[in-house]
Amino acid sequence: MPRFSGIVFLILFFVGIITQYSFAQAEENTGYVHLKIYGVSKPLCRVDTSAVRVNDTLLNLSPGEHTVKIWMPTMLLVDSVITIKTNDTVKYSFSIKRNPAYVKYATDYFNYKQLRNKRFAVSPILIGLTTGSAIVIDKFVATKYYDNAIRSKELYSKASSQTLIDEYRDDFEMYKKKYKTTVYVEYGLYSLAGVLVANYVRVLIKQRRTPVPFYKEEKLLSSIKFNMYPDFKSQSCMIGFNMGF
Amino acid sequence: MNKYRIIIGLLMVMIVASNCSKKLDNININDNPYDRDYVGPIVVSKSTITTDTVSYPTMRNTISVTKTINNHDGIRLYRNGVLVSTKLASSPGFPSISDNSAVAFATYTYQLRLFLGSGETESADFSYTTPPW
């Protein structure tokens, strides 16, 4: 039995030696890289064929060259090569920038909203102002002149001296003229309101025919399902995606 | 916006506005009979004339008056353009008025005038020959 245990001991010894030798070999075939990506907090990142979701982190890679691709929806693709040194830590930083096509889309969409809001708001305000002004003129100006004219007529009918008769007649004619002018102004404003209403209808039709700016994302990393759409209700751009490698 | 549509629209407005402003156009401002520019019907006229003797040959011609207005202070009688008699509305016997100095067989041209303050409204002239009784 002691002979048998000795053999076992020798076997375990050599296994241990072999294991430590392999471990030493493995330690000699590794390196580290510190990746820092500016522009986004947690971008989609692929190193060779592996997906990583890191930023400002240390990665353990085999020495040599590795392909790095970094992307986020609406951003430009960063496609680069990093070199890892054995038993060393290298630092790489990348800056991810907004896709100019998306920037143009955002500008176009902003301008579209500005124009839409202007079209929807300006005409009703003007219609309200003109109609309101006409109503105020009728209630507070035209009615006053009409009442004054009627009163002058009543005073004329009761007057007996020619001096007063002439005075009241002149007053009547004056208020009658002012009343007529006011009525023309009032109905001119109503007419202007009508023109504005017709124009508003035209603007609404034109707005309906105005295409909404659209941005189509080009999928730059595989297995990414992405969709983006402007949400008018919350007045924001909704982005949804999931990634698998 | 088509400028012709605007012009047509404004013309329609003017038509509508001119119709709406006719409310005061229908009011007649020359219907006061005391107005010298009065163009309405005569509001005072003679109804009948009776004659009685004051002291021959002086006769009294009494003219009964018909009037269509009630705003007056009284009536005046003109004979051949001269005022001969005034009677206030509150006087007894109104609305008749007399010429107390007529002469028998004389023909006069009379005119009645209602007065209110300083204003007067006239009747048409009428002639009358005073009989001897």
Give a quick rundown of the structure:
The complex is a heterodimer of chains A (245) and B (133). Chain A is α+β, with helices and mostly antiparallel strands and 245 residues long.
User: What fraction strand of chain A?
Assistant: 15-25%
User: Helical percent range of chain A?
Assistant: 40-55%
- Note the main sheet of chain A: 4 strands, antiparallel
Please provide the ordered H/E string of secondary-structure elements of chain B.
HEEEEEEEE
Secondary structure tally: strands of chain A: 9
Main interface by residue count: A-B, 28 and 27 residues
SSE order of chain A in H/E notation?
HEEEEEEEHHEE
Radius of gyration of chain B: 25 Å
- What's the arrangement of strands in the largest beta sheet of chain A? 3-2-5-6
Taking the alpha carbons of the first and last residues of chain B, their distance comes to: 90 Å
Q: Count the E strands of chain B.
A: 8
Residue runs with pLDDT of under 50 for 5 or more positions of chain B: none
Structure description:
Chain A has 245 residues and is of the alpha+beta class. Chain A is 55% helix and 24% strand. Chain A has three helices and nine strands, in the order H-E-E-E-E-E-E-E-H-H-E-E. A four-stranded antiparallel sheet of chain A has the order 3-2-5-6, with no helix packed on it. In chain A, strands 4-1-7 form a three-stranded mixed sheet, with no helix packed on it. In chain A, a hairpin with a 6-residue loop joins strand 5 and strand 6. Chain B is rod-shaped and about 90 Å long. In chain B, the strands form two sheets. In chain B, strands 3, 4, 6, 7 and 8 form a five-stranded antiparallel sheet that branches. In chain B, strands 1-2-5 form a three-stranded antiparallel sheet, with no helix packed on it. With 133 residues, chain B is mainly β. In chain B, strand 3 and strand 4 form a beta hairpin. Classes of the chains: A alpha+beta (245), B mainly beta (133). Chains A and B meet through helix 2 and helix 3 of A and helix 1 of B.
